[in-house]
Write a structure and sequence with these properties.
single chain; alpha/beta; Glutaredoxin; globular
């Protein structure tokens, strides 16, 4: 009995230590879809979620969004959702659909983000910024600045693989 308890304690501690340092529940404010429906990230629980904050006026975002679109397509048959959240001011939100169309991006897109929300995610007040959430809505990885393919693929694949192996970096800075 004592050995089982010791093994269970060691196993629990090793899982805790291997988890990304910043795993915490993601903020869950309401956003609007492009057709005006209210959405929350919590509606996607049960899936790994890649959340990208961007803006129509952000030049690095224009480079990053098509890359994220290709990544999303590569995970189409997996329990992974990609959500793009614009931080454009309400007066500029009409520009969002045209920007997405110009960039050939078809991922689910919401508006209503802002720099207060990106700050709550630990991304500071710049865009682009990306967070990867596990299927329970816990923040597993963050990318401040323009995400590279491996910045997204590494934590997503780690989650899809049952969190085995080395945990991904909890924070990547690309600016």
């Amino acid at each position: 009995m004592r050995n089982r308890l010791l093994r269970a304690t060691v196993l629990a501690l090793s899982c805790w230590i291997a988890a990304p340092a910043l795993a915490r529940s993601a903020p869950d404010p309401s956003y609007k879809t492009l057709d005006g429906q209210t959405r929350k990230l919590s509606s996607l629980r049960g899936k790994i979620v890649v959340v990208n904050f961007w803006a129509t006026w952000c030049v690095p975002c224009q480079d990053e969004l098509p890359r994220l679109s290709k990544l999303a397509a590569s995970y189409a048959d997996k329990p992974v959702a990609f959500v793009l959240i614009s931080i454009d001011e309400p007066k500029d939100r009409a520009k969002v659909p045209a920007a997405l169309e110009r960039l050939h991006v078809t991922q689910e897109s919401w508006v209503g983000g802002n720099t207060d929300i990106t700050g709550e995610f630990g991304l500071g007040d710049i865009v682009p910024g990306t967070v990867i959430l596990d299927d329970h809505g816990q923040v597993v990885a963050r990318v401040m600045g323009e995400a590279r393919e491996e910045d997204v693929r590494t934590p997503v694949d780690w989650l899809l693989g049952g969190k085995t192996g080395t945990a991904p970096s909890a924070m990547t800075k690309r600016y």
